[in-house]
Amino acid sequence: MLEQIAFFVLSALALVSAVLVITRRSAVHSAMWLIVTLFSVGGIFLMLHAEFLFAVQVILYVGGIMVLFLFVVMLVNLDVAAKQAQFNRQWQVALVVTVVLMAELGYGIFHGHEGLPPAATTPLTGGNTQAVALALYRNFMLPVEIASIMLLVAMVGAVIMAKRKME
Amino acid sequence: MIPTYWYLLLGTALFTVGVIGVLTRRNVIIILMSIELILNAVNINLVAFSQHFQSIDGQVFALFVITDAAAEAAVGLGLIIALFRNKETVNADEIDLLKW
Fold it and tell me: Which of A18, A22, A64 sits opposite B25 (nearest CB)?
């Protein structure tokens, strides 16, 4: 019972703040509401016994990516854009199409979930962080290296993009 | 015990909100934030299935998605700064340099 209440509170928080993210006029307000959404999703991770991902979500998303967003919001002059129209011309069509997409997906999941294979009965042993680390450095060694190269390329790319003048 | 498909429905709803944000907003920074919402919805699905099958692979994949989100945010925000320096606008429908 308590678990259901926690799930509904976290889901409602995530969805309401997500809607506020895409409707606010000021980009700073959007960023603040996005932080609320990210924390709620982190809470959902905790409910799913993914403690390491919760820590990564808080440190990397809320602490890293959102600070980057706020820096850019302050570097770019948004005063002009805040006075203009916030939604583009095709927003009604986009809204209808996306709501139809959600209805299809929701219908499929709601009526098709009996087809899901039964849940595993043998629980994972050991701590969550230990399990993630063992999987990362045993089975996923090559993907970890590829991800590190991708981060390096992204870092160089971001510096090149933001540079004032190409020499 | 919460059924797995509740998490999938939550992921669907969050994904839809993100797609609406990408398709309707004009501000490029908020479009990037909506992409972060979409990636979070994907992560909820991955972790829910990781719990459902008691396999750690879903969580590892979610970790890679977070890495990807960080790289995407860095490059995207660099692009926005370069764009603002050249065009003095952050509206997606005013960036039409390649349109003839």
Answer: A22
